């Protein structure tokens, strides 16, 4: 029996148990379709009944209580705090089974591909930023009392992610073995990462881009949030507005940054001026996009999945443009791009 067939029988068995609990008890399973996975090891299926459709996520078995499950615990916390996330209808964690609301196939990336005007783009992103502001406004006491978010983007984490890109982008992808160059780059990245780590933090989505926002009934729903952790507010804002998959109109990017800054209380972000906020935004862009380059190369090197390679050039040029005309980045830009353009 092929693995996919085995999983289909597995899903049918678990869905029958869902019905035994009188959840969707009047619905008959008619079809099971495998969905294209994300960059994780989770497998997704859309199931159709005689009345509706749902999504089944198959993950590794989890033997601890629900409150410690990396996805379900965060989903429950965010939903309680009025963040629109997919509903979970049933689960069997010991068998790695989650039955979720079907959000459809339309990601934000797909949705905005049909936009015709700059004004339309701005209005959509403004609605999403309003939701992001709600996430970042969740009181620190509530976050701490949940006992869910023990990790943060500290200096060590930022440097680990920088070395991750050195390994998979320089060593594996570009076949660069110049250890002296990588040592110099690490020293130049270090003060940027330290500055980011020294700022006030909020709870961040962690991977907030156009593929991780679904569009259903004109609502925007956040997915893939299970790695949420403490980070500076600019982390998610950069992930959205400096998305490696979609290049938002520059005038909209500037207006949306300003809108976000003006609508988040200074006591949360801690910056004394928009200029300070923007300076940290630039630091964050360099870190976040450089890490994305490493992820694209990691997926290719270890999973032989080349779908993300096409975004590397765009990402690197985004980093270069961010560094241009800023003396703080001059030496780093020269060393980084002399190597990049030579390969």
- This entry's quaternary arrangement is single chain
The mean pLDDT is 94
**Uncertain stretches of 5 or more adjacent residues:** none
CATH architecture of the largest domain: Alpha-Beta Complex
Q: Give the strand content.
A: 5-15%
Q: Compute the number of helices.
A: 13
According to DSSP, the number of beta strands is 9
CATH topology category name of the largest domain = Aminoglycoside 3'-phosphotransferase, Chain: A, domain 2
Number of spatially distinct domains: 2
User: What is the highest CATH level, the class of the largest domain?
Assistant: Alpha Beta
Silhouette = globular
- The separation of the N and C termini measures 45 Å
Gyration radius (Cα, Å) is 21 Å
Structural class: alpha+beta
Largest sheet: 5 strands, antiparallel
Spatial ordering of strands, largest sheet: 1-2-3-5-4
- Which series of helices and strands comes N to C? HEEEHEEHHHHHEEEEHHHHHH
Can you lay out the helices and strands and say which pair or pack?
Blueprint: H1 3-20, E1 29-34, E2 43-49, E3 53-58, H2 72-80, E4 88-92, E5 97-101, H3 108-112, H4 118-136, H5 140-146, H6 155-173, H7 179-197, E6 202-204, E7 213-216, E8 219-222, E9 229-231, H8 234-241, H9 250-263, H10 266-269, H11 274-303, H12 312-323, H13 330-342
Antiparallel strand pairs: 1-2, 2-3, 3-5, 4-5, 6-9, 7-8
Helix pairs in contact: 4-9, 6-7, 6-11, 7-11, 7-13, 8-11, 11-12
């Amino acid at each position: 029996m092929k693995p996919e067939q085995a999983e289909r029988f597995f899903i049918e068995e678990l869905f029958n148990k869902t019905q035994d609990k009188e959840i969707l008890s009047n619905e008959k399973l008619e079809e099971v379709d495998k969905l294209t996975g994300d960059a994780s090891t989770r497998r997704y299926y859309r199931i159709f009944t005689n009345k509706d459709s749902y999504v089944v996520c198959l993950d590794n078995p989890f033997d601890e209580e629900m409150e410690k499950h990396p996805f379900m615990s965060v989903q429950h916390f965010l939903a309680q705090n009025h963040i629109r996330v997919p509903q979970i209808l049933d689960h069997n964690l010991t068998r790695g089974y989650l039955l979720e609301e079907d959000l459809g196939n339309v990601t934000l990336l797909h949705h905005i591909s049909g936009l015709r005007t700059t004004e339309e783009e701005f209005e959509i992103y403004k609605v999403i930023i309003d939701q992001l502001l709600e996430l970042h406004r969740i009181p620190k006491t509530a976050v701490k009392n949940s006992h869910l978010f023990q990790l943060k983007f500290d200096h060590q984490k930022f440097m680990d992610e920088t070395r991750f890109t050195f390994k998979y982008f320089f060593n594996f992808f570009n076949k660069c073995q110049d250890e002296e160059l990588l040592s110099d780059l690490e020293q130049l990245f270090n003060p940027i990462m330290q500055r980011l780590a020294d700022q006030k933090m909020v709870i961040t989505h962690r991977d907030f881009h156009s593929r991780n926002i679904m569009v259903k009934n004109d609502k925007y729903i956040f997915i893939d949030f299970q790695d949420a952790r403490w980070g500076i507010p600019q982390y998610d804002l950069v992930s959205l507005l400096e998305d490696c998959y979609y290049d938002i109109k520059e005038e909209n990017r500037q207006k949306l940054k300003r809108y976000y800054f003006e609508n988040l209380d200074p006591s949360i972000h801690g910056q004394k001026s928009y200029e300070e906020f923007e300076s940290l935004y630039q630091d964050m862009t360099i870190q976040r996009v450089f890490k994305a380059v490493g992820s694209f190369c990691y997926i290719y090197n270890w999973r032989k999945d080349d779908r993300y390679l096409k975004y590397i050039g765009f990402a690197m040029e985004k980093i270069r443009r961010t560094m241009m005309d800023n003396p703080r980045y001059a030496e780093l830009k020269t060393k980084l791009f002399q190597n990049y353009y030579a390969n």
